[in-house]
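Aim 2 progress update. The chain analyzed this quarter is reproduced below.
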Amino acid sequence: MTAEFVGTVLYGEIVKKTSISPFQIMLAISNRYSYEISYDMAWRAKQKAFDWRFGSYKDSYHHLPHLLALLQSRNPGTIIDIDDYQNANGDRVLRRAF
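Predicted structure tokens:
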């Protein structure tokens, strides 16, 4: 059993109740399949379901400039600024957006 499988099986429950804990995911799999999964696997399954539903953090960062530009175009006089830096891996890391 993989985190991807668990995320797929419980996708609806996870995105419906985003506050579901890994322990609740573990219990749901145990009740449904009589199989014990680790806390780590339950946590990763929850993260995968969130990524499928809401996109990854990188996706969110990628869309931020467009979102702020759209906000600015619809609200004349709005000032926007993104404060970020490039880490050692070459990825842009967001500090804050104004």
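The two ends are 43 Å apart (CA to CA). The CA atoms of residues 22 and 93 lie 28 Å apart. These observations will guide the mutagenesis experiments scheduled for the next reporting period.
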